[in-house]
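A quick word before the example. In earlier lectures we treated sequence and structure as two separate objects. From today on, think of them as two lines of the same record. Here is HNH endonuclease written that way.
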Amino acid sequence: MKVLSRDGFRCVFCGCTGEKTSLHVDHIKPVAKGGSSKLDFLATLCEECNLGKGTQDIENILGGK
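And the structure line, produced from the sequence above:
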């Protein structure tokens, strides 16, 4: 809940709110690749963005913006 609140209950990619879709909390860098489950290493994504990113790290996608 802290991640959702911090991110304003909006997807960090597209800005979509939980009113229109399900929101997911995802690891910015997958645990399998050395990521952490600490608050600073998690982000809010809508279902479409989370499923659409595939196996890409969020940090790589956000870094490109």
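Notice the following. The helical segments are 2-6, 47-52, 58-63. We will return to this example when we discuss secondary structure assignment.
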